[in-house]
Amino acid sequence: MPLPSTDNAPHTPATTDTKDLLQGVCRLSHLGVIRAEGEDAAKFLHGQLTQDFSLLGMDQARLAAFCSAKGRMHASFIGFKRSPIEVLLVCSRDLLPATLKRLSMFVMRAKAKLSDASDAFALYGLAGATASEESTAPWNLTHSGDGHRITLYPALGVPRQLLVAPSDTAEPVGAKLSQDTWLWSEVRSGVATLSQPVFEAFVPQMLNFESLGGVNFKKGCYPGQEVVARSQFRGTLKRRAHIVHGLSAMQAGQEVFHSTDAEQPVGQVVQAAPAPAGGWDAIISLQLAALESGSLHLSAADGQSLEVLPLPYPLLDDI
Q1: Is-contact 307 11, C-beta < 8 A?
Q2: CB of 231 within 8 A of CB of 237?
Q3: What pLDDT is attached to residue 133?
């Protein structure tokens, strides 16, 4: 698929120096934890989220979404079993209270209890040498003395992990990694985390979740399942997530315009972070037609230029 013309858009290719910045440990205070406990915990979540939790092994994590009846994402999670009767869901802290309240409405007779367990755990991002030396695929899970380590998608080839540790566990050893640098690595990994400004803005495929292991099309029903399946199998999906670079600050929820249309936005910023080499990088959800010609701009058709960068993974229909 051709990329849009990006005259005057700055380009900041990955350099060895930039990759060297992705080394260390970052406390992830912007994330929280929902705990589901009880013999029906996994079964209950299986019926509410886009991924298979009934067959979830103790050595796996899941990327998943909780959707409305119209298939629009209320929240995204990284979920895993801490024990056969306990599942933890890591999500954006600003969405946690409303998400917990809505999920709890559907528990009914299920033998499961949901709670906010954010204070019981400390969350860390590990990059480079501080991540496990074992080479594993994304969403692999290991349990160790310092907590639960989940392999994430790399950023610029640098390995990354999410560490979920009991709150009284000593902080992992390693250089301090700034939150801005970690958030930038999240953007460059191409795996979006939903937050309040983009609540109910996307179906999962608009963020490439089907290509990242975030949707299971063989599992049973869940809220929005028919819409999500129809988008996948009837060719109705017209948006995808892409990574872009611009000179000035960007933030979730901002609109993206095409150079030929000042009236209607063609995309929306999902998340953004300052780039170490200058400017800002962002994940945007973008109409596929906008990539065919012209250029992309933030907030208005004559706003700052945005350069589309390569995705670090193949999309499902490109495999």
Answers
A1: yes
A2: yes
A3: 62
- Write down the domain spans for the chain: 23-177, 194-318
Write b or e for each residue in 24-46: b if 16 or more Cβ atoms lie within 10 A of its Cβ, otherwise e: bbbbbeebbbbbbbbebbbebbb
pLDDT of residue 205: 94
Sheet holding 73-83, edge to edge: 61-67, 73-83, 86-92, 31-37, 113-116
Map tokens 């009767």 to a residue: 85
Is residue 164 within 8 A of residue 144, CB to CB? The reply is: no
Signed CA dihedral, 220, 222, 226, 231: sign only: negative
pLDDT on residue 2: 34
Burial zone of 104 (CB within 10 Å; 0-12 exposed, 13-18 middle, 19+ buried): middle
Whether 253 contacts 298, CB under 8 Å? no
- CA separation, residue 127 to residues 167, 174, 251 (Å): 20, 10, 24
**Both tokens assigned to 46:** 């299986």
Tokens of 216: 């299971």
Predicted local distance difference test score (pLDDT) of residue 109: 87
pLDDT at 134: 62
β-bridge partners, 267:
256, 286
- The reply to whether CATH 3.30.70.1400 applies to domain 23-177 is yes
Q: Alpha-carbon distance 155 to 275, whole Å?
A: 13
Q: What b-and-e string marks burial along 297-315, b requiring 16 or more CB atoms within 10 Å of the CB? A: bbeebebbbbbbbebebee
Q: Which of 27, 23, 24, 25 is nearest to 121 (CA)?
A: 27
Residue ranges of the chain with per-residue pLDDT less than 70 = 1-18, 133-135, 233-236, 318-319
Q: In this structure, which topology does domain 194-318 adopt according to CATH?
A: Elongation Factor Tu (Ef-tu); domain 3 (2.40.30)
